Amino acid sequence: MRKKGFRTGFEFSPFEEKLKSPFDKLFDIFKELITHTSGDLDEALDWLGQLDKEYKLTDEYYTLDDFVEDLKRKGFIQDRIAPNGNKEQAITAKTERAIRKNALDQIFGKLKKKGSGSHKTRSSGIGDEHTGDLRSFQFGDGLEQISMTESLKNAQINHGFREFKLTEDDLVVEDTHHKAQMSTVLMIDISHSMILYGEDRITPAKKVAMALAELITTRYPKDTLDILVFGNDAWTVSIKDLPYLQVGPYHTNTVAGLQLAMDLLRRKRNTNKQIFMITDGKPSCLRLSDGTYYKNSNGLDPYIVDQCYSAAAYARKLHIPITTFMIAKDPYLQSFIEKFTQSNRGKAFYTGLQGLGEMIFHDYENNRKKRIK
């Protein structure tokens, strides 16, 4: 079944059915559908009903009505008052969290596991992760770092057993690694081209954003992630809003997105900062000083392009690398991205939709290693 360019991407087998309960099996599909429909519960359930007719997902013992009742009972959907005053059903924050975790499992679960928790610097010093190494006390070390057992042993060796005496020279501390922070801004293009030509590009972008948010909040809790979308203008969105992102009738104001990203990163106190930008189209819009818009969708407009290069160069001065994930392979667009990347000394990837999430996660972890050392 195809609807609005949607493909299920699921394979059903007796083996999977034995492992999962009827609810869990349907819930996996439901999480995919609710992402594709940008949080529209009615449309997601309609698609689920059509998939049920085609693939026989339910039987007389567990029906779609039973599934909907379980969604209510488990707190995944609830009644609410719509803006028009009517009563309707909608997904809850619990469902939003489940969608983020599902995206993380799909994308990051394919990658090799690389340790646990926050990334350490090579430098030792005041920190909060013990290395097991011991060294002499230095000015500035915290009292909580002092190993009393080893320090008392030193005092006994240095001063004998008859008189208890503990001096600064006897003190030994357990070394720690300082766990640095990385601040990331993820820019998502929501211009109209993200759904042109019958290809859904916004859903993979949303999945990447949700998975990245889940990764950072669970694996790197000291890191920060800001997410913004850009069309004619740019604005921030919260993590909980990600499932509901939709493409609008917008041009692509890349400069507005970059300016907002740099404004967000200026407020961060840590020094490790980066921008990820997911886009599939050329820059085609600028907002002028008088508040009007300059738009040109025909080719690469030199005025718009030069403003993009300037923004990239300014980010470089702020020591903010930009990694661009280009969901297009047009030669003239690649040429623009190459020059844009040179202006920033960042990185660029030209990718289809399939490998987008995996590439971003590889790059996120690689960037942490390079920037935090």
Description of the structure:
With 373 residues, this protein is of the alpha/beta class. The chain folds into three domains: 14-91; 120-179, no CATH class; 183-372, 3-Layer(aba) Sandwich (Rossmann fold), CATH 3.40.50. The protein contains eleven helices and twelve strands. It has helices at 14-19, 22-36, 41-55, 64-73, 93-107, 148-159, 202-219, 254-266, 302-317, 331-344, 356-372; strands spanning 77-81, 87-91, 120-136, 172-179, 183-189, 224-230, 234-237, 273-279, 285-287, 293-295, 322-326, 347-350. The strands form four sheets. Strands 7-6-5-8-11-12 form a six-stranded mixed beta sheet, sandwiched between helices. The protein is flat and about 85 Å long. The model is unreliable at 1-8 and 111-131 (pLDDT under 50). Residues 184-282 form the VWFA domain. This is VWA domain-containing protein. Residues 113-133 are annotated as: Disordered. It comes from Namhaeicola litoreus. Pfam families: VWA_2.
